[in-house]
Design brief:
Layout: H1 8-25, H2 28-44, H3 48-77
Length: 78
């Protein structure tokens, strides 16, 4: 809602709080959504490099975590 009202600074503050809570509760879908919206806010504020860094870091971390779980999943499946 804050983004629709053109208030990306306020939205960013809320999103960081939501993301922190989601990380504590391991709510993956909420973490993904908050991270994308956080990057969007930074982009709206003209911080394109920060937005790209946030997405890059998140995607790399997510990929590495999934990659590190792959051998365990293969063992459990077979």
């Amino acid at each position: 809602m804050l983004l629709l009202k053109e208030q990306p600074n306020d939205a960013l503050t809320v999103l960081i709080q939501v993301k922190t809570k989601a990380q504590q509760d391991e709510q993956i879908a909420t973490i993904v959504e908050a991270t994308v919206l956080e990057a969007f806010c930074h982009n709206r504020l003209g911080n394109t490099n920060i937005a790209l860094d946030i997405l890059h870091e998140f995607l790399c971390r997510f990929y590495l975590e999934k990659l590190s779980l792959a051998p365990i999943q293969l063992i459990l499946v077979t």
